[in-house]
Amino acid sequence: MLGSFGWPSSEFGCLQSLWNAESGWNRYASNPSSGAYGIPQALPGSKMASAGPDWQTNAATQIRWGLGYIKQVYGSPCSAWSHEQSSGWY
């Protein structure tokens, strides 16, 4: 999916590190204190409904939403990973 967002495959390493840290790529990951949910740890998780009605269970839907969020807020996975490393969140 990286290419469909205009990123080269070299961005994948940053994305992998980012979502390893956030959720371990677990589509059911849930943060009990914040309520963040899924692979990208959307807060609230229901935000991902904009990417599809199966947001609670479909990894592809969560990834698509997460990549859109990263593009809108950070510009690229490596920029998001840099922010995560400096602040502990993205």
Low-confidence stretches: none
Outline: globular
Strand content: under 5%
- The helix count comes to 3
Order of helices and strands: HHH
What is the rounded distance between the termini?
A: 20 Å
Q: Tell me, rounded to a whole number, the average pLDDT.
A: 97
Largest sheet: none
- Indicate the radius of gyration in whole angstroms: 12 Å
- The secondary structure category is mainly alpha
Would you report the number of β strands? 0
**Helix content class:** 40-55%
General description of the model:
- By secondary structure, the chain is mostly helical.
- Helix content is 41%, strand content 0%.
- It has three helices and no strands.
- The chain has helices at 12-22, 59-73, 77-87.
- Helix 1 (12-22) packs across helix 3.
- The protein starts with 11 loop residues before the first helix and ends with a helix.
Sum up the structure in keywords.
41% helix, globular, 90 residues, mainly alpha
How are the SSEs placed, and which strands pair?
Layout: H1 12-22, H2 59-73, H3 77-87
Helix pairs in contact: 1-3
